[in-house]
């Protein structure tokens, strides 16, 4: 297992993990409008921006397969993080 900072070549896997997690898990906890918002918010453009800002990390299982993403944003004194994991 491990975690490393995402690079531009990781864009597709970060987007895939985010979309799968939001599409399959979020509907159990959020109304459709919220799920649609989260899917739109995790657009390729926004993910790419966060990768370029060094805010995205990938989580790997023991087989070194990417199974999760972590995005950390710091605004002022607030720390905002997102964690998406697929199993």
The dominant shape is: globular
Number of domains: 1
- The residue fraction in helices comes out at 25-40%
Q: What is the terminal separation in angstroms?
A: 13 Å
Q: Point out poorly predicted stretches.
A: none
Number of strands: 4
Largest sheet report: 4 strands, antiparallel
CATH topology: Aminopeptidase
Q: Biggest sheet: strands side by side, in what order? A: 1-2-3-4
Encode the helix/strand succession as letters. Answer: EHHHEEE
Mean pLDDT: 90
Measured by DSSP, the beta-strand proportion falls in 25-35%
CATH architecture: 3-Layer(aba) Sandwich
Structural class: alpha+beta
Number of helices: 3
What does the model show?
The protein is of the alpha+beta class and 87 residues long. It has one domain (2-85): 3-Layer(aba) Sandwich (Aminopeptidase), CATH 3.40.630.30. The chain contains three helices and four strands. It has helices spanning 11-24, 32-41, 44-52, and strands spanning 2-5, 56-60, 66-75, 78-85. Strands 1-2-3-4 form a four-stranded antiparallel β-sheet. A hairpin with a 2-residue loop joins strand 3 and strand 4 (78-85). The longest helix has 14 residues, at 11-24. The radius of gyration is 13 Å and the shape is globular. The mean pLDDT is 90. It comes from Catenibacillus scindens. This is Acetyltransferase. InterPro entries: Acyl_CoA_acyltransferase.
């Amino acid at each position: 297992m491990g975690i490393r900072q995402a690079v531009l070549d990781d864009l597709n896997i970060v987007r895939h993990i985010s979309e799968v997690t939001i599409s399959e898990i979020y509907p159990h906890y959020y109304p459709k409008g919220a799920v649609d918002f989260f899917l739109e918010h995790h657009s390729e453009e926004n993910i790419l921006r966060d990768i370029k800002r060094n805010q995205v990390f990938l989580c790997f299982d023991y087989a070194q397969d990417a199974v999760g993403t972590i995005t950390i944003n710091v605004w002022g004194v607030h720390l905002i993080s997102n964690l998406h994991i697929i199993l």
